[in-house]
Amino acid sequence: MRNLLFIPGPVAVPEQVLAAMARPMINHRGPEFARLLGSLEERLKPVFGTTSEVLLLGGSGTSGLEAAIACAFSPGDRVLACPIGMFGRRFSNIARTYGLEVDVLETPFGEAQDPSALAARLRSRDGENYRGILLTQNETSTGAQNDMQTLARAIGDHPALVLVDAVSGLAASEFLMDAWRFDIVVAASQKALAAPPGLAMVAVSERAWQRIERSRSPRFYLDLTRARRLAKTGETPWTPPVSIAFALHAALEAYVDAGPAKVWARHERYARAIHAAAHAMGLELFSQPGAHSNTVVAIRVPPGVDAASVTRRLREQYGVVLSGGQEELKGTIWRIGTMGDISEVDVVGALAALESVLRECGCQREIGTATGAAQTVFAEPPGPRTALAV
Q1: What are the boundaries of each domain within the chain?
Q2: Which end of the chain, C or N, has fewer beta carbons within 10 A?
Q3: What is the mean pLDDT of the chain?
Q4: 254, 266, 268, 377, 386 from 383: Cα distances, Å
Q5: pTM of the predicted structure, to 2 decimals
Q6: d(CA 352, CA 369)
Q7: Residue 80 phi/psi, 5° resolution?
């Protein structure tokens, strides 16, 4: 049975991307890899919306976030963290690990960051002392996403460096790093670009490089300065995951061939179809209106239903793989990803399986309501939408 991956990542990878990994190995210090590395950077810049350098690090998205913290700040620097979920908390904890003083602007889980609250904090007496601002574009733990353009306006001309965790959001919607004056943006290969895990991508502004040159934090493997210097010669400081680089290049080719706007619309369409299906089944979304993610839908588990039992039955009986909640949300939500090599037929099939399992668990659901609601969304003429209204 082929498993359908509807998790927040890693995601189902297209066959042509998997096939690229089977290419013969090349010398990672030779001209072939130098050309590959240069081509990857040039293809990634428009995805980030930047003309700045984009560096590749062997590691997960978290390695990129740690590199950003370790290189941009010094122990004792004060930063403002703006988490909207578990991964925003992780960003904060990385900062604490490197000796930074971290103030936290709390947001209830399921909601997006309030731009007025952010602006007010930055205008406060403490606000002028912040050396950095830590933002999350998209939070897979809660199914919520931030309006990054609005947050950029709220920050305005504040001198703090703005670091963005865009791991689960980049390439699923428009992102304009330069226009929004973000300084370091981190993404990863295994999310919306639909490549295997193993590469972090870090875009760095010129303003950030000036700060990095003055940083006193210790680092070795995650040294962006060293990565920048070697990138100019077509190399990476350490042995890179060459096969993953081949795959990422194939994924970026597919992204360009499909057209970014169509890729963004596809993620939005899948999320909207799952929202409609959830409402048809009487299920409640965890994320709040105006904050719905395009890449993962979080649904509250109905009272009396064992969340883990449902995900197990879906996997074992239907080959549909969903994620549950994390930490304090464990057992209270399901998370359904929209990224990767999945089709409208796959989405409808997964929703049909969810209907069946919920019925087996004693939830009285009329069979076909969820799939009908999703198919209604898919029957609509395709067109650009700026937000999920459901």
Answers
A1: 15-256, 259-379
A2: N
A3: 96
A4: 20, 10, 10, 12, 10
A5: 0.96
A6: 9
A7: -110, 115
Tokens 């194939």 -> residue: 250
What is the rounded CA–CA span in Å between residue 133 and residue 156?
12
CA 355 to chain centre: 28
CA distance 273 to 344: 9
Query: What CA–CA distance (Å, rounded) separates 370 from 281?
Result: 6
CATH architecture of 259-379: Alpha-Beta Complex (3.90)
Residue with tokens 């003083």: 101
Share of the chain above pLDDT 70, in %: 97
Domain 15-256: which topology?
Aspartate Aminotransferase; domain 2 (3.40.640)
- pLDDT tens-digit profile of 161-213? 999 999 999 999 999 999 999 999 999 999 999 999 999 999 999 999 999 99
241-267 mean pLDDT: 98
State phi, psi for 304 to the nearest 5 degrees: 85, 0
Backbone angles phi, psi at 8, to 5 degrees: -70, 0
For residues 278, 280, 282, 286, the Cα torsion angle rounded to the nearest 10 degrees is 30
Whole-angstrom distance, CA of residue 217 vs CA of residue 288: 38
Q: Where are the alpha helices (H) located in the chain, listed in sequence order?
A: 15-20, 31-48, 61-72, 86-97, 115-123, 148-155, 206-212, 224-231, 242-258, 260-280, 307-313, 344-360, 369-379
